[in-house]
């Protein structure tokens, strides 16, 4: 790699406010706020609204979309789009 063209990667704690969890990973993001991690070291902390601990896709709390209703509404609005639609 070329020197001095890549951002600095450092250990950062990401804290998920919705789930009340935190995880330590590497990132180029930085923050003025710091937190003491389990190993006793202090790391920058970034608060996030959603992570894999709280996102409905990963937690199994997904909502079922009303796809049939959307398709029907599309057909009512724009027609069926058949061969005569031109």
TrEMBL record:
Superkingdom, taxonomy of origin: Bacteria
NADP listed as a keyword: no
Entry's Gene Ontology cellular component terms: ribonucleoprotein complex; ribosome
Coiled-coil positions: none
GO BP annotations, alphabetical order: translation
InterPro entries in the cross-refs: Ribosomal_bL28/bL31-like_sf, Ribosomal_bL31, Ribosomal_bL31_B, Ribosomal_bL31_sf
GO MF: structural constituent of ribosome
Keyword Ribosomal protein: yes
Cited NCBIfam families: L31, PRK01678.1
Protein name, UniProt field: 50S ribosomal protein L31
Native source species: Streptomyces violaceoruber
């Amino acid at each position: 790699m070329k020197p001095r063209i890549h951002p600095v990667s450092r250990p950062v704690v990401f804290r998920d406010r919705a789930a009340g969890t935190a995880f330590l990973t590497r990132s180029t993001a930085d923050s003025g706020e710091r937190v003491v991690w389990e190993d006793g070291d202090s790391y920058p902390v970034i608060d996030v609204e959603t992570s894999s601990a709280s996102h409905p896709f990963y937690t199994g709390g997904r909502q079922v979309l009303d796809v049939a209703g959307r398709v029907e509404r599309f057909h009512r609005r724009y027609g069926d789009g058949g061969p005569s639609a031109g």
